[in-house]
Amino acid sequence: NIKCPLEKSGYFEVLGKCYFTDTIKRNFDDSQAHCKEIFPLGGRLFEPRNLTTNKKVRENRLEDFSLYSHAFIGITDRISQGSYRYESDNGQLTVSQWNAVEPNNDNEHCVTICSSSGDWCDDPCSSPFLHICERTYNLL
Question: Rounded to an integer, what distance in angstroms lies between the CA atom of residue 104 and that of residue 127?
Fold first, then answer.
């Protein structure tokens, strides 16, 4: 029986799924690798597939993020400039929550949650930011 270890720091649950975040800043690739360490059976950066989940995940960690900065999620346009896709399957986005002037830089290929309302920004993949991991298998 695989439960979300909510008693451990950084883990939280939203709509039956397990998530993790910490306060260490990493670049995009290190963040993605960290998610695979946290959830060896299918961890990845959070890929918001609907606005409710995007909002609830953000709300869940509001206190943490307001103290720090942007947090990487699993969306990039690294394969094709300007075409933002989910990192795990290169799938088209099923939801979009760009901040007013974003995406705004052709040299920024990774996406962060960058506001308290859960809006997204494009940011440099090499920059150190927070990140949000999700576990892709459901709780038993």
Answer: 16
Name the pTM for this structure: 0.92
Rounded-to-integer distance, Cα 140 and Cα 122, Å: 35
Q: Which residues contact 56 (CB under 8 A, 6 or more apart)?
A: 14, 15
Strand partners, 135: 43
β-pair partners for 12: 19
Q: How far is CA 96 from CA 20, 42, 52, 113, 139, in A?
A: 22, 24, 12, 12, 27
Q: How far apart are the C-alpha atoms of 117 and 10, rounded to whole Å? A: 20
What pLDDT digit, counting tens, does each position of 61-71 carry? 766 655 557 99
